[in-house]
Design brief:
Aminoglycoside 3'-phosphotransferase, Chain: A, domain 2; 11% strand
Length: 361
């Protein structure tokens, strides 16, 4: 990108005062300074800026990160995370170069300071609706209506539609698998929060589950052709229904591109979860809704391979709903049934969505 002198000077004035004058810039390692715009500023070429403010000369170095795929730097939010952390952490280590500020570039090339930030927030539009988990609670207690079946069709149609957008970037697919297994918000991170000796698990059971999940990571390495647009956290608390089957979704998470099985399991696990709380099995209308969800999605997409890659994503969603932290009121037999499901799905080469109870037993 090109860095305009006027934008750089305006930014520095905001940091050091309005009387600042930018005197020169040059890429680190170069000997010839310039007072003009900087062409091709980016990673690998930190920029030395020299200025005068309040009658004194000063200097600083501006550095940014390369826009690239892989190494956890795929999204601009990844690069922002690193820069924000560095601004916070550099100054706490003796002898480390000090960070003076952290900022960002706008689409028009302006530089904006974010150095005073402590926590970030999001300002969103307001939507009307009621979370889908209320529907599942009602179905568990009172049974389903025709509207419940219509809504399952609408949800599976929606996923079929967004998953039809395919990506061609193997590093992003590998990242999705890696993060599903090892990220702090996913399997390993959730299990880190479990108590040391859960009453519903055998000794070393969690350790064995983690080993199997790593094996699945390697089994899925060759599936990058499956990369598609995803929601990333498509569970019933992130789905808001209005009248009929009209809905909106909330809180898209963990990347724009990933594996379709992530969205499928985020919702499907909850049909199992609500039914297991009542009978330790997937039964009745919740069973019908679960199977309809899969049948309609597979009919619309033809993606039978989904059933061969789904296991670690079910494992992720299962350790969430069985979590003593997130669901403290569950009985041990409910948690045990969920772990039976998790382990038997991980042990299967292909998931049979019509025989869930064989995994729960």
């Amino acid at each position: 990108m090109d860095l305009k002198r006027a934008n750089l000077e305006a930014y520095l004035k905001g940091i050091y005062g309005r009387d600042l004058t930018l005197t020169s810039t040059r890429k680190m390692g170069e000997t010839i300074a310039t007072t003009e715009d900087v062409k091709g500023f980016g990673y690998g070429s930190p920029l030395l800026v020299e200025y005068e403010a309040k009658g004194k000369k000063g200097s600083a170095v501006i550095s940014s990160m390369r826009v690239q795929r892989g190494f956890g730097h795929d999204h601009f939010s990844d690069r922002a995370r690193i820069m924000i952390w560095q601004n916070s952490a550099f100054n706490h280590l003796p002898k480390h170069v000090r960070s003076l500020d952290v900022g960002y570039f706008t689409e028009k090339g302006k530089l904006v300071s974010a150095g005073n930030a402590r926590e970030y927030f999001l300002l969103m539009e307001k939507i009307e609706g009621k979370e889908y988990f209320f529907d599942l609670e009602r179905v568990k207690d009172d049974g389903a209506t025709d509207l419940d079946y219509d809504r399952v069709i609408a949800l599976s149609d929606y996923l079929a539609e967004i998953h039809a957008a395919k990506g061609d970037c193997p590093p992003l697919y590998l990242r999705k698998i890696r993060e599903t297994v090892g990220d702090g918000e996913c399997i390993f991170g959730i299990l880190d929060d479990y108590p040391d000796n859960p009453s519903f698990l055998e000794a070393n059971e969690l350790q064995e589950i983690e080993k199997i999940c790593v094996e699945w990571r390697w089994l899925l390495r060759g599936k990058a052709h499956r990369l598609c647009q995803v929601h990333g956290d498509f569970h019933p608390w992130n789905i808001m229904f209005r009248d009929g089957a009209d809905f909106s979704v909330l809180d898209r998470s963990r990347g724009e591109w990933g594996e379709a099985a992530d969205d499928i399991t985020a919702l499907a696990m909850n049909y199992i979860f609500y039914s297991v709380q009542k009978s330790l099995r997937l039964t009745g209308d919740l069973k019908d809704l679960f199977e309809l969800f899969f049948e309609n999605y597979l009919e619309k997409t033809g993606d039978e391979e989904l059933l061969e890659v789904i296991a670690p994503f079910f494992a992720f969603r299962a350790v969430v709903v069985a979590s003593p932290t997130w669901y403290p009121l569950l009985s041990d037999d409910v948690r045990r049934a969920i772990f039976n499901f998790l382990e038997r799905v991980l042990a299967s080469k292909k998931f049979n969505y019509r025989d869930v109870n064989s995994y729960l037993a």
